[in-house]
Amino acid sequence: MSTPIVQIDDLFFYYNGQVVLRDVNLVVERGDFVSIIGPNGGGKTTLVKLILGLLKPASGTVKIQGHPPGNNGTAIGYVPQYLNHNLNFPASAMDVVLMGKYDPSRRMLFRRKKKDRIEALEALDKLGMADYAKRKITDLSGGQRQRVLIARALVTRPELLVLDEPTASLDSKGQTDFFSLLKELNQELTILVVSHDLLIVSSYAKSIACVNKKLHYHRDVGTTSELMNAYYACAVEEVCPVDHIMEVIQDYSPSEGAGHG
Amino acid sequence: MVEALQFEFVQNALIAGLLTSIICGVIGTLVVVNRLVFLSGGIAHSAYGGIGLAFYFGWPYMICAIGFAFLSSMVMAAVSLKSKHRSDTIIGVMWAMGMACGILLLDMTPGYNVDLMSYLFGSILSVPGSDLVVMAAIGVVILALIGYFFQDLLAMSYDEEFAQIRGVPVKRLYFMLIGIVAITVVMVVQVVGLILVIALLTIPPYIAEKYTQSLFGMMVLSCFIGMFFTTGGLWLSYTYDLTSGAAIIFLSGCLFFLSLIFDKVLVLTKKADIL
User: What ipTM is given for this predicted complex?
Assistant: First the structure.
């Protein structure tokens, strides 16, 4: 059996003396599409930061392809939550994508500038943004800026793509486009996405991780109804913000039990 | 103005202005995009404590000022990393405390004291040649450091978290940047005064940011804008017999507001085109 792409064992994390994550265990296999759901303040973003190596666990281990995170920067591509931070920054879409190609250990060497630019342009093209390469990021719309940030993550040639609430600043059309894009990317990449979005959970995710201090993982929730059950189980137990919606859906399919998936 | 160039003090003032513009253009760009303007002000003011210390104990002036500024800048950097949302308060306190300490120490020093005004507004017209050499040397070192770490600084300034994931040593780099800001500020304050440093650190980069496509372009354009301000201000001060520092700042401020108005007009005409 191959090494799982993410392996978390007995992880605890505290912030200001309070437990944020308690006894978290998680194994994500290659090719999975995991949706991380849970209430605000439940520890979703903390979990993501631990996986990225931006935070260190109080106890327990996080391993990315068998190594601690941070040592293998290329394995994870990260798309941050905020699209509008540092909006006035003087950089073109191309410059932002090229930041993904930057490797500090090659600081002194002459970088393969041309090759990097071609790769960056390819990544932008894949996301339909090649025509905007020279535009300043200020002049792009929220959705376009997000595509640029995804291109920046893709250009690092990741095995795992981590997205933190990517749909927060997109309209519903933008969201649908975005999810089909993720599904396409999922053919080559493992995807881990933090989302409140019911749409993503019901139609795109293969697995669900419910995070509210503890983590419940529901792997390969195949059919929509199974998925709904898993989601529902999370909702009752952890009081998700959308649990009332789930209850309504449950009313429409009374034959399904409410057990763990 | 041309006949004035034969005077050595005018030549020195011009060179000091140009050097300051280059250093402030490069460092100021990083200060503006990393939102360190308030922190830079805090460093510059608290450095006055170092000057008080130097006079009270009779220690060398330059080393004291730089040491004091450097130490307080490191504290400020640590605070702003640790508690992002309240760091401005603590910087404000250190700003005031440094200044007060400096004045109290000078009060207790017997004999002739440097006055606060010369620290605030400097004296660009009486810069000795030796100061210019020191300034140029430090400027070269600073620019070399920034050049070496340029890509790292670019990545960090745009997106700290992403930079960290890519393996950029964000924390060390942040401390280094703030240390450089501290040394720059103290160096340049010597020559042109505190108020002018803050003006030249902020105004040229702010204007340049809107008309450039890259961080490097922003640095270059800010240098040129700064040079225009300093030479223009010196010309004003020579022709109309005005205080040079204030004239430079006044010119910069006026053009800053003009650029704001220009942008508004630009936006309005764009809107009019669409309608």
Answer: 0.79
